[in-house]
Amino acid sequence: MTRHLAQRGHLSLDLNVPLRSFDLEVDLDVTGTVALVGPSGAGKTTVLRTIAGLSRPQRGRISLGDTTWFDADRGIDVSPEQRRVGLVFQDYALFPHLRVDQNVAFGAADPALVSGLLERLRISHLASVKPRALSGGERQRVALARALARDPDVLLLDEPLSALDAHTRLGVRAELHELLDDLQLPTVLVTHDFEDAATLADRIGVLVDGRILQVGTAADLVAAPDDPFVASFAGASLLQGIAALGAGGLTEVTLDAGGAVFSTDLAVGRVAVAVFPWEVSLSRATPDDSAVNHLRAPVASVVELGNRARVRVGPVTAEVTTASLARLGIVPGDVVVASFKATAARLLPV
């Protein structure tokens, strides 16, 4: 579609940006799509603004391939309009007085790109419509088309799906994944949603208080989280306690909330026990199986998602099929047993 699609650039960041409560320090290489995730105020959007040239680091370097966009030591600071960055803002920032085609054409590298982008993103029929008449999904497509009309070398997406309802989000997420896979541009995506990050990004960087705690694939973050926040973001329940050597070579964790659980991980001292929902099974009575961890507690909530259900039992969440839920007849308030194996209890230092 554009002259840059075959050029798979390598975006390199080494940034220090003073913020109100801390210094944002990010050292990151971007090929394909990288998602930055973390709590509000962690510095995620500032990273996007710095790449785009809208914020200036105190020190560091930004380069795309052999081209340097910023280098504090060498006094290089390429202006935003010369960086060829496509930026999609969280609220889309469409011009309300302009039609869809005019919004996309604003700042386009070549006006000839506009019609092709409208067709590709399936919004050609909306060319003469103004933003106020568009749905959330349509506005998202227009904002994306406008960003791509710059024929960018780098694409930056700030919470691109957050303004969408749950039904629209699923469809647009799939479309965006297909588009990013086709474009093969260095892309930095900011999101609070693990499913968005796991679906859209090749790698995920977890950013907390201006520092990247871990970078890896979604599978990496689930299989081997380095930090309790990483595990929690990836969907794990966290139990706090004190670890000590237990029987049979297992580690026994005496929980702050009472009781104990066992893990095959080795640890001593204060830890967080991370348990993912799909590792937890439910029963009415303590089962006679290979699981060594059994927590009996009331059911706090039941949330059905298609053919699955998330059931909160005391401090853990279990993910079971709706068929299993119906067979057990579990409803909020019931006292059940949540069980998981020692191999499913991951120990993380606090």
Task: Kindly estimate the percentage of residues that lie in beta strands according to DSSP.
Answer: 35-45%
- Indicate the radius of gyration in whole angstroms: 24 Å
Q: What is the SS-derived class?
A: alpha+beta
The run of helices and strands is EEEHEEEEHHHEHEHEEHHEEEEEEEEHEE
Counting DSSP E segments of at least 2 residues, the number of strands comes to 21
Question: Helical stretch count?
Answer: 9
Low-confidence stretches: 1-7
Shape, principal axes of CA atoms = globular
Helix and strand layout, with pairings?
Elements: E1 11-18, E2 23-30, E3 33-37, H1 44-52, E4 59-64, E5 67-71, E6 76-77, E7 85-88, H2 100-105, H3 113-120, H4 136-148, E8 154-158, H5 166-183, E9 187-191, H6 194-200, E10 203-208, E11 211-216, H7 218-223, H8 228-233, E12 237-245, E13 251-255, E14 260-263, E15 269-275, E16 281-283, E17 293-305, E18 308-313, E19 316-321, H9 322-328, E20 335-340, E21 346-349
Parallel strand pairs: 3-9, 3-10, 7-8, 8-9
Antiparallel strand pairs: 1-2, 1-4, 4-5, 5-6, 10-11, 12-13, 12-15, 13-14, 15-21, 16-20, 17-18, 17-20, 18-19
Features:
globular, six-stranded mixed β-sheet, alpha+beta, 9 helices, about 350 residues, five-stranded antiparallel β-sheet
Architecture overview:
The protein has 350 residues and is of the alpha+beta class. 23% of the residues lie in helices and 35% in strands. It has helices spanning 44-52, 100-105, 113-120, 136-148, 166-183, 194-200, 218-223, 228-233, 322-328; strands at residues 11-18, 23-30, 33-37, 59-64, 67-71, 76-77, 85-88, 154-158, 187-191, 203-208, 211-216, 237-245, 251-255, 260-263, 269-275, 281-283, 293-305, 308-313, 316-321, 335-340, 346-349. A six-stranded mixed β-sheet has the order 7-8-9-3-10-11, sandwiched between helices. The model is unreliable at 1-7 (pLDDT under 50).
